[in-house]
Amino acid sequence: MTDAGSGAARIDTSKPHSARMYDYFLGGKDNYPVDVAAAEQVVSLFPAVGEMARTNRAFMHRASRLLAGRGVRQFLDIGAGIPTRPNLHQIVQDVVPDARVVYADNDPIVLRHAEALLHSTPEGRTAYVQGDVREPGKILAAARETLDFSEPIALSLVALLHLVADEDEPGRIVRELLGALPSGSHVTLSHATGDFDPETWERVVEVYRKGGTAAQVRSRTEFSAFFEGLQLLEPGVVLAAEWHPEPGEGQGDAEIPLYVGIGRKP
Length: 266
What we know:
Number of strands: 8
Largest sheet: 8 strands, mixed
Shape: globular
Order of helices and strands: HHHEHEHEHEHEHHEEE
Number of helices: 9
Strand content: 5-15%
Helix content: 25-40%
């Protein structure tokens, strides 16, 4: 799970942060004892959470590469998380060297890493915004400084919406973000689900909520609703293991409870 964003100005080590927990699941070092403690609670409930994080990241790579290969030259990645190579901009700029990428997240530790990382990229092609997905207008306004909103944009909300509770109206957020994008734009989504083991995922969600993150897993039907009015790319809404697996991928993650999909705005 990455993070929805809060716009905080300093690193708060008094409570766990989902971006840093995600980093821990991926084997990273950019986390604090409070993040490790919460992450280990999740591991005790769902031991495959590290595999789930890697499966999600592999899906992001495949999806971004596919869209870049189809000619998309602009990407807006909200809930980007702590940079882990290869990052989205490295994937797409390998296919389309002049592709422009804007990252957005809330944890200041992500900003710290992003600033260092982006110094090594071509000026003007990659940018970072610290913002809250629950305030999409602010993210869109900042993204306009780098992206051309008259041309198609690929919106990435990967492992993000399960960190937005129903009371924050995730459907409205997705519609507002897509409403600002032109025809031919895409949205890439992945989302944890409790469809296969609801009791375990209720307990996992509780760990996040106790730490201050409004986590909420959703069913396949609920996840599919985010694509309403869009043209789903094949194979539609499926588990991550079933979405264009590449050689060496998909064999071990068939049971990972993660729905994915890409929708195209007509």
